[in-house]
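User: I'm putting together notes for a lab meeting next week and I want to include a structural view of one of the chains we've been expressing. I don't have a solved structure, so I'd like a prediction I can at least talk through. The sequence is below, exactly as it appears in our construct file.
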Amino acid sequence: MQLKPLISIIVPVYNTESYIHRCIDSILAQRYDNFELLLVDDGTPDRSGDICDSYAMKDSRIRVFHKDNGGVSSARNLGLDRASGDWIAFVDSDDYVKEDWLLDYVSEIEANSNVGLIFQGFALLKSGVESIEQTIVNRRFQEDEFVEAYAYLDRQLKIFGYTWAKIYRADVFVDNNLRFNQSLSFCEDLELTFRFIQKIDNISVINRFNYLYSFDCDVSLARRSHSYDTFTNIADITDTQLRELSRRTGEVCSEVFDTVTDWRFRALKSMYRGYKGKTFTERCRILNTYYSCYYTELKRADIYNGSEKVLVKVLALKTSWLIDLLYRVMFKLK
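Assistant: Thanks for the context. Below is the predicted structure for the 334-residue chain, given as structure tokens.
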């Protein structure tokens, strides 16, 4: 009789005392019960760490680790160091999951023994209202289809990078010493997942939406402001992606180019949500540095729509002050 796989669930915890009960309770309510729950208190200043300890006293599947604040990547890495499961899943402490979340993953694991990474969809939770904005079909991708998989998961579904949208085979982390890059504060999950897929030969996508991604929490990662300088991370990350995916196809195919370039625009948009932290001169310097390497690629205006097409044409003029003005106006209007 085949043993049920043990799943390690890693939850970084920081400043979510109003939401951590909901998160932990949803995990404990799983219909699939062969899991361990690793709660990593990342030096939280509120009562979240104490709440985690109280749960650990009641359920032997829960282990709590307290550490100095080092960021979400260091918390996840500590969880990976202490995990003993066959598979690894991540949950953010302000989110929660439905009761079939793990069971649906395990069903695919049992049906596809070679799979190394499994994706699910997710539902958005805004003001207590749940909504699904994706259309997903069950798919399996072999190693020679990973470029297609990347384009589908990232460009179309936009779930490639998020750690909580998937479950990872644990031995891939162990055998390749894979950990989150703690020097990154933006897209660290995208960067880790991209390195992970280089080490496996089978990806599954299942048409399930068991993860509730919350916009209700004030400390949600989706609401956090990042400094300008952190967004220069995306340049190196996307450049690596472009080189590796192009190597697989023998050329910079449209699926690879469009997906990688889309990330660069997303980074720029996110950067301008908190633009007040830098002077005009500093903003222009960053724009010039950030896009100087990508001007040739950005000239492909046919892949863009609306405001992005206008921005590409402005970029062609190499006038960073005008791009800066356009973005500040756009976000002021919003």
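A couple of points you could mention at the meeting. Residues 225-333 form one domain. The CA atoms of residues 24 and 96 lie 8 Å apart.

User: Perfect, that's what I needed.
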